[in-house]
Structure formats: structure tokens, C-alpha cells
Design brief:
Elements lengths: L4 H30 L7 H30 L4 H28 L5 H5 L4 H11 L31
Helix pairs in contact: 1-2, 1-5, 2-3
Length: 159
């Protein structure tokens, strides 16, 4: 199954955000090493950040593919089962990666495990800036009988 254009766009936004978070994490680890907290081994940190980012982006890609395929399922029980299976597989993938980061000494543990959280950080950042759903991707408002969009009447608290 191929990623749809909207999924590809979101995946690229998550990938770019994850790489930005990697840069911030590497800088933070460097500053911490300057004040005496841990050591800054460039190879171990870069290897951990690169592999951890691949795992995080792969996890998000699997999520996108699952949503695309589940939309086609009519039976709600089968759809829920598909989502649950995908969730379990992605959770095992992440947990396995964290264990590998801990066991394998060439990988810096924090630099390898932290990128798993970066897609969530990117989503929260986009949501806080009201850019999670750009105007062109925003869900359409329901139409009234006269053909005009219905008013929300939400007052100052718009969604």
C-alpha cells in the first residue's frame, strides 16, 4: 500500500520536526557535558539519534498506513481489531528499540530513546500554533439547508 499525498505531507512534517528535535537534543547533551553531566561521544550520540529517529518516523508511517487501510473496512469490530494490532506492533517496536539502546553500548541511551517521543512533541507544537490542520486541510463545516455553512455559536472558545 502506498501513502496517500496527505499522509506523505504529514509524514514529512513529522520527519522534519523530529530532525529539528534531534538537533536540540544533541545541543542539550553537549551543553550538559560541558557542565559535567555525562560525556559527549559524538559517534554514540549521532548513531543513537539517527537510529531512534528512523524508528520514530517508521512508527508514524505505520500509523498512517493503518489509518489508510482501516478507513476501507466497513465492520467496526474488524476496524478496531486492525487498530489494536497496529498499536501493539508499534508499541513492541518502540519498546524493543529502547531495550536495544540500553543493551548496545555503541548507542547513547538517551540519544537513542528520546527520538521516540519527538513526533508527539512536533504534534503538540503544531497544535499549539494552530498549524496542525492548516486552513486547506481543515474539515469542512456542515452546510445548512440554505447552502450556507452553519454557524458554530461557540463564542470565544473556537475549536
Amino acid at each position: 500500500m502506498k501513502l496517500q499525498p496527505a499522509s506523505r505531507k504529514e509524514l514529512s512534517r513529522i520527519a522534519i520536526g523530529t530532525l529539528v528535535c534531534d538537533g536540540v537534543m544533541i545541543a542539550a547533551l553537549f551543553v550538559l557535558s560541558l557542565v559535567g553531566v555525562g560525556s559527549f561521544d559524538v559517534f554514540r550520540i549521532l548513531l543513537g539519534a539517527a537510529c531512534g529517529s528512523v524508528v520514530a518516523i517508521l512508527n508514524f508511517a505505520i500509523l498512517c498506513l493503518t489509518v489508510q487501510s482501516a478507513v476501507e473496512i466497513e465492520n467496526k469490530k474488524k476496524m478496531k481489531a486492525r487498530f489494536q494490532l497496529s498499536y501493539n506492533i508499534r508499541l513492541v517496536l518502540q519498546a524493543g528499540w529502547v531495550v536495544l539502546c540500553f543493551v548496545l553500548k555503541p548507542i547513547h541511551f538517551v540519544a537513542g530513546a528520546a527520538p521516540i517521543l519527538f513526533p508527539n512533541v512536533v504534534i503538540f507544537f503544531l497544535q499549539s500554533r494552530n498549524k496542525l490542520f492548516p486552513k486547506s486541510d481543515a474539515p469542512a463545516k456542515p452546510m445548512a439547508d440554505d447552502g450556507e455553512p452553519e454557524e458554530d455559536n461557540l463564542g470565544p472558545f473556537e475549536v
